[in-house]
Every structure is written in structure tokens, then in C-alpha cells.
Amino acid sequence: MIKTDIVIIGAGPTGLFAVFEAGLLKLRCHLIDSLPQPGGQCAEIYPKKPIYDIPSQPEILAEDLVDKLMSQIEPFQPGFTLGETAQDIEKKSDGSFVVTTDKGTRHHASVVAIAGGLGTFEPRKPDLEDLSFWEEKGVEYIIRDPEKYRDKKLLIAGGGDSALDWTIVLADIANEVTLVHRRKEFRGALDSVKKVQALKDQNKIQLITLAEVSALNGNSHLSSVTVAQGESERNIAVDYFIPLFGLTPKLGPMINWGLEIEKNAIKVDNTLDYQTNVPGIYAVGDVNTYPGKLKLILCGFHEATLMCQSAFQRIHPGKRNVLKYTTVSGITGFDGSLKKAKKSTIKTIE
Question: Mind listing the pLDDT tens digit for each residue in 234-243?
């Protein structure tokens, strides 16, 4: 059995940053993730997608953010159980927990932090005849490597952030990019909408609104799509059709853990520490919900920070925790690695 202070279910950005915050408190962490590598959606779904809302980073690729987070937590030597899904949580008589995966790996900890993002998920697919036939033959739902589409003809469908962002990125890579949206207004960030409109005005992309793809055409590989706009239809030659209608999240085994669920997310107390209705089990990042919740990586980082402070008190009841700025305390791993920073003039908070 693997023993640690905090078992973190989910190794996406929020789960990884929780390791850092826990490490500052000398708490050990072990992460469980069903994916074969750390990083969550950033590593699996859009590693090459730029992210714009990380403090101090005007733009950073998702995979680079994961690499930096992994480097940041290296001194704290977290453990990983990858390629396995957390299946069951058993609460022991002493208040600790045993988390067992679908492959039978058992983990024992005083605290469980669920940082499972959207849980398990699958892409929302358009209602098109023979859609499944064209999958992997020109129809794709996830963009992992933009270079795959260099000098290709693409048609992207959707009106949210993902469709807008990938249109912007691929405009400089693909030979032709057409964005189709069934409404005139977009649901994505206003800045992204302006960038897409600018690309259209510069004739770098085609933008078709109040329209949708009605048919897929080709032989062994997709060669064109039919776009219906009002009463008219037209065929557009493409190498790839990429519908980006978002993901359908599913909590999976979490639904059976006795947690309070609301709209496919785990309810938490955001007035203090993001604890669930089960004492000792926390939920941070996109997997949780509370009044005013925003599904942003930045918010997940904040939630993970407060969660770790609460976890320290649960693991060491009555022990005084003196919060220090890292500019004062420096950052050292459990083995003393990384030289401590010189003491600055910033005072500690007691």
C-alpha cells in the first residue's frame, strides 16, 4: 500500500500546483490519474494550444505549462500512479482514507484532494449521417499537434473558445481555414472574437455564420463537406473537418463516493477551504462547484492553496503553521535540495 499525506486524484495543472503548495508545508503528495502522463487535458487534448490567462505568461503552450509545473514540484518528490482510475474511497475509523484504483493499487492518506478537472469526458458530436465512418478519415474532435494540419484545408465548426482559439492558431499553419458557426454571435472571449474577425477581414480565413455542416463527402478519406446556410447549400473542399462543440463531462466513479453533486460537479464550501460534505475530502479546480465558480486554471491554483492550508491543520491538529512568503523561506525539498533564498526584508505572517 502506498502511504502519503495527501492523495491527489487528478494530475492536471491544479493537482500539480497543489503538490507545490503542500510541499511548502512539508506535506507529501501522491497523484492518481487515468491518463498515462501528468498534465490532464493540457497534455492529452491540447498540448500545443496557447494559454493566455496564466499570470506573468502573456502566452504559454499548454504542454510548456505542464513542464514548468513539473519542474516546480520536483524538489518535493511526489509519487504518481498513472494510467489507473481512482475507483473507490474507504474512510477508516481514524478518519484517514484508502483510495483504490481500477487496477487494485491502494493508497493510504490523511487527506484526499479531488482535482479531476471535468472528470472523464467525450467530445460532443454533430448529428451527421455516417459520422462514425469518417472518424480518423478526416473527421477529428481533438487537436493534439497543429503541425499535422500544415498546408491542409480545414473546416472548423463551433462558436466557443476552443473553436475560436484553434482558428487563430491554425490560420498561420494550414493552407485554408474555414470557421462555420450556426449563430451570428460567438460564445468565446471577446478578444478571440475580434482576432477571428480581423483574420477574416485580412482574407486569412473564411468565416461562415448562421450555417452548419449538413453532409460529409469523399471516398476512403474526407474530401469535402456540405455547408447549409438558410435555403442554400455549398460544398467546400477540405482535408479535415474538426467539430469543436465542447466536451461532455462525466464524473465516473466519483458519483459513488457519497459526495454532494450539483450539475455534474462536486459541491464544496468555498467560504473556507473547498472541502466537500465528507470531512477530509476536498475538491479543487474544474471538478468543483460553488456560488460564483469560474472554471479557470488560475482559480484552481487559488483553491489548491487554501485547500493545502486546511489539510495541514487536519494532518497536524493543533500544530502552529507560520505562513511565510517563499521570498523569505526559500524552497527546499524534503531532502534539503535547492538552496534556501537569502532572508529578505519581507516579514512573515503569523
Answer: 999 999 999 9
* Alpha-carbon gap, residue 269 to 253, rounded angstroms: 22
What's the pTM value of the predicted model, to 2 decimals? 0.68
Instruction: Report how far residue 13's alpha carbon sits from residue 116's, in angstroms, rounded to the nearest whole number.
Output: 10
- Rounded to whole angstroms, the Cα distance separating 278 from 240 reads 47
Q: Which one-letter DSSP state was computed for residue 175?
A: S
Distance from C-alpha of 321 to C-alpha of 301, rounded to nearest angstrom: 20
Q: Name every residue whose Cβ is closer than 8 Å to that of residue 332 and which is 6 or more positions away in sequence.
A: 75, 338, 339, 340
Give the pairing of strands 6-9 and 111-114: parallel
To the question of domain 2-121+248-319 being in CATH 3.40.1190.20, the answer is no
The values of phi and psi at residue 319, to 5°, are -80, 135
Question: pLDDT digits over 324-337, tens only?
Answer: 666 655 666 666 65
Let me know if domain 125-245 sits in CATH 3.40.50.720: no
Quote the CA–CA distance of 196 and 219 in Å, as a whole number. Answer: 32
Please answer whether residues 70 and 81 qualify as being in contact, where contact means their C-beta atoms are separated by less than 8 angstroms.
no
Q: Please tell me the predicted confidence (pLDDT) of residue 145.
A: 82
Residue extents of the structural domains in the chain: 2-121+248-319, 125-245
Distance CA 148, CA 240 (A): 10
Q: Choose among 84, 77, 69, 110: nearest CA to 32.
A: 84
Close Cβ partners of 190 (under 8 Å, ≥ 6 residues apart): none
Q: Is the pLDDT of residue 221 over 80?
A: yes
Q: String of b and e for 316-329 (b: at least 16 CB within 10 Å)?
A: eeeeeeeeeeeebe
C-alpha cell at 22: 503542500
Do residues 198 and 205 lie in contact, with contact meaning Cβ atoms separated by under 8 Å? no
